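Quick one: examine this chain and its backbone structure tokens and tell me how the chain folds. Here goes:
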Amino acid sequence: MTTNFQKIKVAVVGGGAFGEEHLRTFASMPQAEIGGIYTLDNTRGEELCARYGGRNYESLQALAEDENVELVSIATPENQHLEPFKVLSQSGKAIYVEKPLASTLAEARQMLELSKSIMAMSGHCLRFEQRLATVFEKLRGVPKYHFQSRNRRTRIEKETYGRVHPAYSMLCHEIELSNAFAESTFKRVIALETKYSEGQVDGMNILIEYENGMTSSVEGGWYLPAQNNCIENDSISILSANGVDELSMPHLGYYQIDSDGLKTPNLYYGYSVYGTKYGPLRAALDYFVACIQQQKAPQISTIQDAYHAVELIEAALRSVEENRWLTRNELAL
């Protein structure tokens, strides 16, 4: 027996690379219909509407007032999530907000409170990466002893994502993963920063102890000298009562060799098969649309999960500033 659901009309806030990725993914989903986009660059908005359909909204308020749009995805820069979240939540829209939830704990607290009256989900889509999701299910309720992640990206990315601290622009995913695997709140944290170039710090190493005894090491930064052929070199390891699970990302056994040399294309985040988008983002959006259709609150990548990731980042940054272990209890002080 099958159940027919009416299509969900969706819109996107933000016309950058991630905003277009959201539009492209929604456009390939049979259960979604593009309602439009709002971006500060009107020319870019018209271009995206011509490509994916929908209306180029003249303002955020105009989008909020469009009663036909049920779901809005926020893909603005990391430190510009609060205002669209506030406006859209007040109009009752379902909201998918890209990671990190916010770039300050104060803003994250506001968004957590606003989310209580609407359907909302955080964009930590690695929770939907096929291999990680398999490991999550296998280890649910199983004692975990140690989580380790290494996130290394090319230095050229700092030109864009250096607008905020790498803990927010880069490590927020791994911190949320660490929290999820722990199935516990963190007890204390200590962190070190790495800096070898001008501007924003280049990387960070965070040690975490959870209330249930699990420990975690999260490291990452703009460390890779390569600019084209290898854009990332990430790994994740989980030690549990069942043994060890290890993942290498984005390596999927696929290489290209051309005039520029050896390349390892990223096929784990988003890839297209004859015009249909797949990968963790598609899986996350599929899940959220299904939650809306069934009127069930998301249980994965919740706003509360995203809030706890920001909470841990805030503690790590204070740890660096004060050169000591910082406990979760101190964040309220």
